[in-house]
Amino acid sequence: KAGVTQTPRYLIKTRGQQVTLSCSPISGHRSVSWYQQTPGQGLQFLFEYFSETQRNKGNFPGRFSGRQFSNSRSEMNVSTLELGDSALYLCASSPLAGANTGELFFGEGSRLTVL
Amino acid sequence: AQRVTQPEKLLSVFKGAPVELKCNYSYSGSPELFWYVQYSRQRLQLLLRHISRESIKGFTADLNKGETSFHLKKPFAQEEDSAMYYCALSGAGANSKLTFGKGITLSVRP
């Protein structure tokens, strides 16, 4: 069974640009969550999608958005990039909604560098 | 609000020594507690969760609601245990997201 796949793995952007990251969950998993990992703040929850609906959102500005498609694939978008958005963005999938329902399966992440 | 505290950043022990990775949490309801692990050049993965009450790779963790702790223990460390360990908490409903501690690096020396 293929794991969670994230693309691109690495990307470099400049301030003010926007970026779209993609996540393909494990087959059959309907929940996709996104986390931001930085050296200073650690792992922080961005949002969770289940059956194409955002069911939970973390404390991030509106520049961070996401969506989920009918095949459960998810994208997240960051607009008007700032230097502080440089981070590893992790996607995680699970069969059921909510992190309390069981194991989250993580991807390898997309490393974003903002110059 | 939910919060997870891992007070130490690094623990270095010799092979065969006991290991205890500390985790304290703050949450007003009934939390689900997890330990996730990241080995070198691998993705983050679940080690164990308190509700399953299992021992995984010799590790155990007991939820102590009185002390709001969920420490991870192993009686005899192995070199392959060297990794980054994260304690995480999830609530229910609108709080059913993982809140992670800052993580601790465990280094097991031969």
Give a structural overview.
- The complex is a heterodimer of chains A (115) and B (110).
- Chain A is an all-beta fold and 115 residues long.
- Helix content of chain A is 0%, strand content 52%.
- Chain A has strands at residues 5-7, 10-13, 19-24, 31-38, 42-50, 53-57, 64-68, 74-78, 87-94, 105-106, 110-114.
- In chain A, strands 2, 4, 5, 6, 9, 10 and 11 form a 7-stranded mixed beta sheet that branches. A 4-stranded antiparallel beta sheet of chain A has the order 1-3-8-7, with no helix packed on it.
- Chain A starts with a strand and ends with a strand.
- The model of chain A has no long low-confidence stretch (mean pLDDT 95).
- Chain B is mainly β and 110 residues long.
- Helices cover 0% and strands 43% of the residues of chain B.
- Chain B contains no helices and 11 strands.
- In chain B, a hairpin with an 8-residue loop joins strand 9 (83-90) and strand 10.
- Chain B is globular.
- The model of chain B has no long low-confidence stretch (mean pLDDT 93).
- Chains A and B meet through strand 5 and strand 10 of A and strand 6, strand 9 and strand 10 of B.
